[in-house]
């Protein structure tokens, strides 16, 4: 992936803002009181799809229509947020969107993808098997296979970081969840474009450690499973192009347990009255784990999405 320029990010932002407004970032006083540092929350739970990925969907579809004008539709694998993003963005430009999810995927996310105009196919035991089926369907139906990570997706996603850093350039550290990696790569790109020295810290689940293990081994490692309720973090093997970027650009990667994620979801509710899905709360969970190291600092956390099933949320919040 070529290094993104400020012009690239500002052009991407103009495309994003044709579909949605910028999201807010707020300094929440109760979080500051709780954690002993100034906490800026970037509210990607307030996009039209309830998660940050819609930004990448918008820029990717613009690129696809420009570079591959004969394409009739797209296919991709997802646990939910990427799929909602692509369904909304594809429908907006008149393309078919076929979305493959693992069996037993969140029914609420599946319904949301259908609501945004996507056709949902359930296949396989996890994201990686769904990804293989998406590749097969692309051949069978002559659809464009959208990867989980692509330069155009990163360009769109980086616009949230551009907004955050423009509002709070003094951030000491930003915590970012890692699934397939577009979020952390977007934050690194925006930081570098703006010439900031902010430390970028990735966050994974203790049940899906592939990115952390790979980062520490300096080579890609795969795990046998990724059984976390934070489905946006449930990846068994890092995407190589994303790994190349965060291996160089991240300060470190922190792992948080299921209990720590659940506690961060509760804290988001009590301190800000915001709904966070598991992956969305993971960055705050990492800051809560490390808050003594951050005392007196100004810290950003990415609330990457709020798309959690009601039954799961009720179990966490109860």
TrEMBL record:
Pfam families: PALP
Keyword Metal-binding recorded: no
UniProt keyword list: Lyase, Pyridoxal phosphate
A GO molecular-function descriptor: threonine deaminase activity
One GO BP annotation of this record: L-serine catabolic process
Co-factor(s): pyridoxal 5'-phosphate
Keyword Iron: no
Lineage: Bacteria, Pseudomonadati, Pseudomonadota, Gammaproteobacteria, Pseudomonadales
Name of the protein in its database record: Tryptophan synthase beta chain-like PALP domain-containing protein
Domain Tryptophan synthase beta chain-like PALP intervals: 26-305
Database matches in InterPro entries: Ser/Thr_Dehydratase, TrpB-like_PALP, TrpB-like_PALP_sf
Family to which the UniProt record says this protein belongs: Belongs to the serine/threonine dehydratase family.
Gene3D superfamilies: 3.40.50.1100
């Amino acid at each position: 992936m070529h290094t993104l320029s400020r012009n690239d990010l500002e052009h991407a932002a103009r495309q994003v803002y044709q579909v949605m407004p910028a999201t807010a970032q707020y300094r929440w006083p109760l979080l500051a009181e709780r954690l002993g540092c100034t906490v800026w929350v970037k509210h990607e739970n307030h996009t039209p799809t309830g998660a940050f990925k819609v930004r990448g969907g918008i820029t990717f579809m613009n690129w696809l229509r420009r570079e591959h004008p004969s394409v009739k539709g797209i296919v991709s694998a997802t646990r939910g947020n990427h799929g909602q993003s692509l369904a909304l963005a594809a429908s907006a430009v008149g393309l078919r969107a076929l979305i493959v999810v693992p069996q037993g995927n969140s029914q609420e996310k599946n319904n949301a993808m259908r609501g945004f105009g996507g056709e949902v196919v359930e296949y396989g035991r996890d994201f990686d098997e769904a990804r293989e089926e998406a590749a097969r369907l692309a051949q069978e139906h002559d659809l464009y296979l959208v990867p989980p990570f692509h330069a155009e997706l990163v360009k769109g996603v980086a616009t949230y970081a551009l907004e955050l850093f423009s509002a709070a350039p003094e951030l000491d550290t930003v915590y970012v969840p890692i699934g397939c990696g577009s979020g952390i790569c977007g934050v690194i790109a925006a930081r570098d474009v703006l010439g900031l020295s902010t430390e970028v810290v990735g966050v994974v689940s203790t049940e899906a450690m592939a990115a952390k293990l790979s980062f520490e081994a300096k080579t890609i490692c795969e795990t046998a499973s990724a059984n976390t309720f934070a489905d946006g973090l449930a990846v068994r093997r890092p995407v190589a192009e994303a790994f190349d970027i965060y291996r160089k650009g991240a300060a470190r990667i922190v792992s948080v347990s299921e209990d720590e994620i659940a506690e961060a979801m509760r804290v988001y509710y009590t301190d800000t009255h915001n709904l966070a899905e598991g992956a969305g709360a993971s960055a705050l969970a990492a800051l809560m784990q490390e808050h003594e190291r951050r005392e007196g600092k100004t810290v950003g956390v990415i609330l990457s999405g709020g798309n959690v099933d009601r039954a799961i949320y009720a179990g966490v919040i109860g």
